[in-house]
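Hallway conversation turned thread

IA: we were arguing at lunch whether anyone had actually written out Transglycosylase SLT domain-containing protein end to end. Turns out nobody had. So, for the record, here is the sequence (240 residues) and right after it the structure tokens. Reply here if something looks off.
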Amino acid sequence: MQIDSATAKQPSSLQDTSRIQNRDELIQEILQSGSGSGFDVMLKQYVQSSIDGTSSSDASVHPKAPGVTYSDGLLWQQLSPSANAEASDIRPESRHAVQKSGPTAYDDLIREASRKYGVDEALIKAVIDTESSFNPNVVSSAGAKGLMQLMDGTAAGLGVTDPFDPAQNIDAGTRYLSYQIKRFDGQVNMALAAYNAGPNRLAKLGVSTDAQLMDKLDMLPLETRKYIRKVADARLKYEA
């Protein structure tokens, strides 16, 4: 694109506006051209204009959200070094609107267990959702049974005679979850990790808080890391 001397003498703010308008016109041409050699040429021109358009003047016209930068003519979200893949495993998804879930067939039993053991109803529902998708008859490959996926030894220790009975399963599962929450002084992610992987495995990490757990997430099974995140995501659906 050639610039005549008159344009070159224009104030920088006017040149910026002109450049933005030209880019908008170029976008329209690209969209109308479809594909082919002409399309390729215009696409390269647009990419170059995007690279050239990353000055502070453009930033005032197209303000960027915190952490967002332009790179190679494209818009990229730059993550801080601490926001690694492991940390994202236990962080609930907040990029999209959460679709709230309606009542379940076990709300009365969940409410009773919540009051009895002091565990948040939404958390109980999230664990059931993640463990069994509210199927009272499911059996895992490891032999865990029922809504809250109780292992035979755990169920027996909690006085469960029929793990497929929703009332017994929810009561025992919530009681076991409450044990873990109390053991870790209210650290929910620690409790969930213990619920999924077992308290002995968690004890070997030598951690006692959710923050410390994040630093050693790679020492837990991948299934457990995903489990914590899934429960956190599911919990959002059931919170009032």
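OS: looked through it. The beta strands are 68-71, 74-77.
IA: good, adding that to the notes. The chain has 13 helices and two strands.
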